[in-house]
Structure formats: structure tokens, C-alpha cells
Amino acid sequence: MTSAELALRNVRKSFRDYAVYFMTLTFGICIFYVFNSIGSQQAVMDLSSSQASTMKMLDRLIGDFSLFISVILCFLIIYANGFLVKRRKKEFGLYLTLGMERRQVSRILVLETVFMGLISLAAGLLLGIALSQGMSLVTAALLGVKIDAFRFVFAFGTVAKTIVYFSAAFALTLFFNVLKVGRQQLIDLIYAGRRNETNRAPRPFLAALIFTLAVFCLAASYFMLLGDLLGGASLNIIIALGAAGTFLFFFALSGFLMQAARRKSLYLKNLNMFVLRQLSSKINTAYVSMTIVCLMLFISICTLSSGLGIARAVAAELRFSAPYDATLVMSATGESGEDYVNHAPVDILAAARDKGVDVSSFAGVSKAAVFYDAEGLVPPFTGRNGEKTLLYLLSLSDYNAALAMQGLPLLSLGANEYAVNFGATNADWSKILTQYADTGGSLTLGGRELRTNAALLRHHVLEVRTHLNLDMILVVPDDTVSGRQAKKEVLFINYPQSGLEYEQLCLGALSGFTVTTADGAELSGSVETRIQVNDYAANSTATIAYLAIYMGVVFLVASATVLAIGQLSEASDNCHRYSLLHKLGADDKMLNGALFTQILIYFGAPLLLALVHSVAGISAAGKIMTRIGGMNILGTSILAALFIILIYGGYFLATYWSGRNMIKTAYDSRRR
Amino acid sequence: MATILQAKNMEKYYGNKNNLTKALDGISFSVEAGEFLGVMGASGSGKTTLLNCVSTIDSLTAGQILIDDRDITTMNQKMLARFRREKLGFIFQDFNLLDTLTAFENIALALTILKKPTKTIESRVSEVAAVLGITDVLDKYPYQMSGGQRQRVASARAIVTQPALILADEPTGALDSKSARALLESFQNLVRTRGATILMVTHDAFSASYCHRIIFIRDGRLFQELVRGSESRREFFDKIIEVVSLLGGDGNDLR
């Protein structure tokens, strides 16, 4: 029999052992293809130019990410393959005792890996191509685009890329594992798996000490992350502390597990003793893999929940800042490039008329407003993170005109009152403003003293904008602004009815619009429309959501696979043990219970710690997000939880079921 | 004395109509309480099938097996599991100890499966360990023990639950002659002092000579029966050899 035949036979014969490895590879290749083929999916969509450029950017970003992801997948393949080789050491030992040369044994291993690689590459690509058709629909939904007609997308370039990347990964795998087998002593190969791992779990006292250290590390990293104790610590230190804490936590846990072994009342009950020994016999592998799994789960949970959260927050914020169909903002740029230079106020509508622009051709309603300079009237406001507001004065009638166009209730002011309007609504800013308003905020304008109070705080957005608006607008009685310098003029526009033709008319008429003021300043205009903002919102949501899901799913699959491989690779040892228990009279319920507990501990322990980590991680992300308007953590966390239940839970059940089936076949095979 | 095991007309067929193997072809026998019964036969004579059927691991094609007056052929899986843990003790040729558990834990396992109160477990384990002379290996793992020690640990696991019937499948098969003798003597001891009932399958005449009674099987049928009575072990051994040579098969070249 040639090596090739032997290898092919081995793959076929030990397909059960290979199943997990095959699943990992296929999954990895499939995900890799689906996300990398995003660029090609636009062929089926009717995209606007901004959407097309978003797709291009997304494609590039995913390309960059893919390098990182493929490194992770590569490690996963090496890990999975390593387990496989470990399982079969005895077989290789047998070949050697039968007089086969090491080179021949290595060749068998190489051929097996190549066969598996080819099969899973084909399967992964087929699955990926099938899934990417569905992905087009998701992309279209996220971008808010209609698909003209269903067309089959086949990304040839991505197929080539996938093949190149994964071939490299296989080559690396081969290098590592062939090396591993080639260097082993024959005796170690033959007796592989006969011994329990040397127990390196710490003794109880030491375990308690390590546990304290672990908790300390974790607490320190949480506090640093949330910036409450040591604020400003670098992210690297936080990550290092968190990782070390996680490792020490599981290390200490293994010690406690051995401690529990001494407690007879618990230990000598049902199959507890057996389950504990199952864990402890692999304890060294267990705590290392639990640490890795925990950290990967943490990354996955954080990217899924905050990534989607950020995407949605961005979208919400942006939709919120499109209160009209369009705004035209006129401002002067100074000689050294500074924005919003003071100038003599202009009536834009009149200026437009002079220039022959017919605003009424695209605007059902339009109002011009002048935002006056407010320098030195009130102290500058600074946010918690050092961000500065831009101060403007706006006359009450201009302000109310804007509100009227938005359909909002109008504001009325006493002769000695002013109101404060600030677009952002988060808690930090509300506190700062309320504190200010409660002091009365006295200012002198037009020769009289004006005061404000908390009832005069407003949070309306006055312009169409794609970025966060930190304009602080002091709304004052009309007669107090005369004679002041203007900072910018704004034209609010609502189309007669929604429709792309008005959008085009508006953009055609107003882009490149300039005005020269009485004092010689050159004002240039910029137009922002609601349609642009919504496009932008949808695009950024899609970009962030994609990357988050890509990363999140890869890490989730990776972590679940590490566990599943660990469990299933012990399957044949377990089969032997469980069928002995069966012979000794343990019934199905006891056996399944023991198996379930065993797998539950492996899957559950890392998940629990990862959840704790994630609470800290997500709150930190939330804190950052509040700066730009807060995010809905609950909704996206539920979404993330769904992903985890679906993928991680699916893996858990699959591992349990296949484990149970293997055991059942093992002890039922005699009965027939 | 009470009858512990009563097998009536046991039949076990493998294969299909064209190629039928009659592993058991109408065997009947019984075991009394406190008896040490041997089952002998050449390879392929059906003795392992017989043991598997009696031990509820395999099912009969036809016939009846009563253990402690209960018919095991009509029980479902769950009842069988319960029956095994309450009534039977197993000793296997390859010991079948769990390599992740120490000797103490391997023995205690049989009791925890029975859900015995945890307080009594330790004393019962050390009691049987003393009987079998394995007290000083209780903290060792199987791979740290010799074959003889492992088989005695397996025996301790089988008797610690005080089963109605102990089933031993070639228990000396993997042992050297000294360890084999020590094991067989401890079996005798168990029968004498603790009133254990043992059914031992073997193809080794020397091991069989420790039994009270031996049934011989050929081609799935009962071939002959020998009772030791008041004979010395030496005399009994010679008689066994005679029957074995009559049996044919690979029994011939045993000794």
C-alpha cells in the first residue's frame, strides 16, 4: 500500500476524529470568503456614489482586517491539527515499530493534511459562495438599497485570495506538526495518552494566594479601564493585567478543584468523583485553553455588542441631526485658514435673489438666519473630556422661524431673558448647563442685563450635519443683536415634497454659492441635505456593523472550536471510560449527566468570566460613546447575546450530542 | 442452599439465514449461593457470549436467565443498569480500571454509582482492600501498579458492593503465574469467608482447578460437568486436563 492510499484510508476511517478539524477549517474558510467578497456584492446593487465609495472603503478595511483574522484562523488550524496528531501518536508509533521510516510516516501525515485541506477548502468555498448570496441581501438592507434582480455573485479574486491565504496556513500547520512527530521518541509515541498530565495545579494555600492576585489584577484593569482610579493608564497595561488576571484566575481555579476533591461528602457522591477526575486529568491543558477561550469570548462579546451599539448610536445621532431637508451654511475663512471669521451680517435670501438663484424652485419653505458672534459674553463651556463649545447669538425671531420649520413649539422670552440651546443631550452636558442656568448666567447685551434659568434650556438641532454639533446658541431678544458682527449665516430649506428632483435642483443651485459682504469678506457656502446625512448614516452603520460582526463571529467560532476540539479529541478515551461505567451499572441518566457537567464546566467557566470582563469593557465603550450622544447598550447586548447563544450554545450542544452519541454507540455496540 | 443463577435453554444466534452462527445452542445450568463455578471451553466455544448474556451486556435470542429469582431477559435498559449495579460484580481480563482515578477511587466508584451514603464508603473500601491485600496501593494510579495489583483492585471494586453474583472473565489471563495464584487464592478466600458467589470464565486448567465445579462448553452446547467434591486440587486438575483434551480445539496445547 502506498503512502497516499494509507493516508486516504486514514482520513476516511478516522473521519470522526477529523470531523471537528474539518468543521473548523470549513467554517473559517467560509467566513473568510463571505466577508472578503463584500466588494463584489455591489454588482447586484443600485448604489449611489457615496454608497459605492463606502463599499470600497469597507472592502479595503475588511481586507486589512483579514490579515489579522487569518493569523487567528491559522493558529486555530495549527491547534486543531495538533490535537489530531496527538490522538494518533500511537498509530504513528505502530508504523515506526513495523519498520516504516520516519520520512514515510511524515509523508503520510503530510498527505493527510493535504487531503483534508483540499476537501475543506472546497467545502468552505462552496458554503461561502452560497452564504455570500444571502449576505448581499443583508448588505442591501443595511445600506437601505434595493436589489434590482437576483444575480449570482462569484468573486473570482476572493476565491484566489482565500486559496492563497489558507494554503499558507496549511503549509505552516504542516511545518509545525510534521516537525513535532518527526522529533518524538518511539516510546513516547507508543505510550502517548496513557498517562495523566502531571498535575501542576497549585496547592490550596498557594491557590488562595494566586486567586487573590488574580482578583487584584482583574480589579486593577477594570478600574483603569473605567478611568475611575488611575485614569489615563495605557491600554496595553490594561490588556496585560486583564490577560494575566484571567490566566491566574483559571490557574487558581484548578487548585480549588483539587481542593474540592478532598471534600468527601461532595466528592463521593454520584459520578462527581469521575467528573472531577476527568477535568483534573487534563488540568494543564484545561486552564491554558480556558484562558485563551475566555479572552477570545471577551473580544467577541465586546465587538458584537459595542460594535453594533456604536453603529446604531452613530445612525441615531445622524438621523437626529437632519431636522430639515437641507441647510446652506455661509461662512468666511480667515487669511491663516481659521473658520468662522467675523463679518458684517448678510441676508442670504436677498443675496441669492441678486445672484439670480431662484430658491423657491426647490424650497417650499425657506428661512435665513444670522448667527452672531458671542465672544466674551459668557465664560467658555468645556465638556468632561475637554471638548469646547462654539458660542453664537441668535435672535428670537430667527430661532422661532427655525423651530416653526421643524414643527416644534415656539419659544417666548421676557425682555430681560435669554435662552440657551445646545444640540447634544447627554447627561454630562445637561449637568453643566443646568448648573450654569441655575446661577442665572447674567450677561450684558445691547446695554441691558439678560438672565436665563433652567426652564429656558433647549436641546434642538438647528442644522443638517453629519458630525456632532457642539454649537452653543444663546437665543436673545431681537433688539439686542443689532450692530453685532456675524459668524455665519444659515439658510433652512424644506422641499415642497420629498423627491430626488428637488435635491438635485437644490444642490445644483447652491453648491459653489458665494457672497461678498459689505465689509469685503468672502463668504462661501456649504450645503448639507437630509438625504446625504441618511446615506452617510446608513453607510457608517453598515461599515461598523460589518467589521464588528466579522471580528465577533470569528472570535466566537474560534473559542467554541478550541473547546469542542478539546472535548471531542478525548472522545475515544471517554468512550472507553463511559462504557465501563455503563457496565458497572450506571444508567443513561447518570452517564449523560456526568458528560453534560463535564462539558458544561469547560464551556461555562470561560463564558462566565468573559461576561464579567465584558461588563467592564462595554461600560468603557459606553463611556466613550456618551461623548457623542450615548448608545443603547441593552438592545445591542441582546443582539450579541443572541449571537452567542446561537453560535457558542450551538457548539456546546453539538459537542454534548456528539459526545453522547459516541459513548452510546460504544456501549451499545455489544448489544445487537 | 439458594439458587443464585438459573439459566434455562440459552440460545444466541448471530448472522442471517444463510450463514447462521449458533454461539449458544440451548445451554442450561445453575449456580448456588456461595459456589465458585468455572466455565471452560476452547476459543469460539461460546463461553464469552455466555458470560456477556449472563452479565446483561448482551441479550439472548431465546431462553431465560434468572438471577436472584428475577428474569433479566425481560428487563429494559434502565432496569438492567440498576440490576447490574445492585446485583452484579465484574472482573475483566484487562482489568478495566479508570486511568484517571486512584485505586481507592476506582473501588469507591462502584459504591457512588449505587448512591451509598458517603460516610460508609471509606470504611467499606478499606475493608475489602485489607481482604485483598492492596491497602498500600490505594493512593496510586493504575499505571503505577503491577498487573496483579490492578486485578486485585478490580476484584475489590467487584466485591465492595456485596453483589449476589461476581462475574469474572479470564481474570488471570493477563497475569503471571504467581499473581494468578494469589488472585485465585483470594477468590477462594472470598467464597469461604464472605460467602461470595463467583462465575469465572477461563480456558486455563490451572485457574479452573480452584473452582468447586466446572462446566465445559463446546460449539455452544454443554459438553460435560465436573464437580471437585472432596478431591485435592491436584487430582481435580488432572481430571480437568482429561476433559480439555477431549474438548479439542486449542485447549490441547495448553499444558
Task: Give a description of the structure.
The complex is a heterodimer of chains A (672) and B (255). Chain A has 672 residues and is an alpha+beta fold. Chain A has helices at residues 3-13, 15-36, 38-41, 49-87, 89-97, 102-143, 156-183, 186-190, 204-225, 235-260, 264-267, 272-280, 283-320, 348-354, 396-406, 427-438, 500-510, 530-568, 571-583, 588-626, 633-668, and strands spanning 326-332, 365-373, 390-395, 419-422, 443-445, 448-450, 457-458, 471-476, 486-494, 514-516, 522-529. In chain A, the strands form 2 sheets. Chain A has a 9-stranded mixed beta sheet with strand order 7-4-8-3-2-9-1-11-10. The model of chain A has no long low-confidence stretch (mean pLDDT 80). With 255 residues, chain B is α/β, with parallel strands linked by helices. Chain B has a single domain (32-59, 79-253), classed as Rossmann fold (3-Layer(aba) Sandwich). At the A-B interface, helix 11, helix 12 and helix 19 of A face helix 2, helix 3 and helix 4 of B.
